[in-house]
Every structure is written in structure tokens, then in C-alpha cells.
Amino acid sequence: MQCGLINGLRAFLTAGACALALAADAPVNTNPPTPAATNEVAILKTSAGEMVLEFWPDVAPKTVENFKKLAREGFYDGTSFHRIIKGFMIQGGDPKTKDPSKEAEWGTGDPGYKIKAEFNDRKHVRGVISMARAAHPDSAGCQFFICLDAAPFLDGKYTAFGKLIKGEDVLLKLGDTPVGPSPSGERSKPLQRVALESVKIVPAGAVK
């Protein structure tokens, strides 16, 4: 894929983007409180434990709707986080990661369609989930990333649609997974499978 972070961020969150090291200082969450109307959350069961995400339908309604739809269909179950850049983000949601024989294609999978970007003013700080995409703004489909730390250069350029409300320790553990070079040379390929066992959409009140 493309290496465009320094010159325009055109394809940073695709499978073969350029590597980046960010400061590891914990970011300050500058995003406003989530409206009370958000009554569903996502439980991501990973090989390192569970994380719980709340959604931002007030700023990215179609993106939230798409993620929930795919989750309810079991689309994400059995996939993996195929791209991890320490101090930056973990990326997953590619259906091709269910098949080890397609490892060379990991990072290129989609649901068979693209969704329109919903860029907004929410900040990319630790725990924020956002849609991965290629160079075209409207090229996201199913792949997503979760920020390990603040990434202000992504603000307004990628569709942030929720944030972690439980399981930050799990997120950081996933972010510390040993990695090696990807086919493009980027140091982001996990040396062991980082499983996303399931994604369940449940009422917010069901999570303690």
C-alpha cells in the first residue's frame, strides 16, 4: 500500500503505511461527554482480555450504524489485530485475517462496500476508535484502529466514532505486542496472533 504520512497523511492507516513512533505520555481526553442517548456499547473480546467501547452517533451516525451491523452479523469474530505500531495504534477488522493462508493480503480486506467519511471534531486520543482507510476519504469499510496515545495529526482526517470506557490495561497490553517488519518494511506485524475473538453489541446497562 502507500507511504504517505509525512507528505499529506494520504494513506497512513492502510496496511503498508510508514512507521511512526509517538510519545508515550498519557493524553488528556479533550472530547466532550458522550450524550446520554448512546445506550449501546461494544464488548471486544481479545486474546488479552475484554475492552468496552461506547459510540458517538451524534458525530458519526452512519459509521456507528455500520460497525454495529457488522458486529451483529459476526463479521469481526475470529479476526485479528494485524497491525500494531507501538505508541500509536492497533488496527483490526480485516476479514482476511481469519485465514492464515491469506497473510500476504492482510490489511486489504473489506465488507464488499465503502462508507462515506464522517470527519468530525473529536480528538484522536488514547482509547478512541476510528475508521482506517486508504487515500480516498470515502474508502473506509470495516477496518478500524484504536489509539494508544494522542495522534492529533489524524484529527478531522479520519472518522472517530467512539472511545474506550473499560479495558485500557488490555489496550496497552495489546499495544506492547512484539512486532517485526511487515511486507512493506514497516515494523508493525505482530510476531504472534492477536485475536479479536468476538465483538458483541449490548445495552450499556449490561456492562458493570
Q: In a few lines, what is going on in this structure?
A:
By secondary structure, the chain is mainly beta. It contains two helices and eleven strands; from the N terminus they run E-E-H-E-E-E-E-E-E-H-E-E-E.
- Total number of helices: 2
Largest sheet: 9 strands, antiparallel
CATH class value: Mainly Beta
Structural class: mainly beta
Strand order, sheet with most strands: 3-11-1-2-8-6-7-5-4
- The CATH architecture can be given as Beta Barrel
The count of domains is: 1
The total of beta strands comes to 11
CATH topology: Cyclophilin
Q: Mind telling me the C-alpha Rg?
A: 15 Å
Low-confidence stretches: 1-28
Helix content: under 10%
Task: Find the CATH superfamily.
Answer: Cyclophilin-like
SSE pattern, N- to C-terminal = EEHEEEEEEHEEE
Mean pLDDT: 87
Give the CA-based shape.
globular
How far apart are the termini?
Answer: 41 Å
Strand content: 25-35%
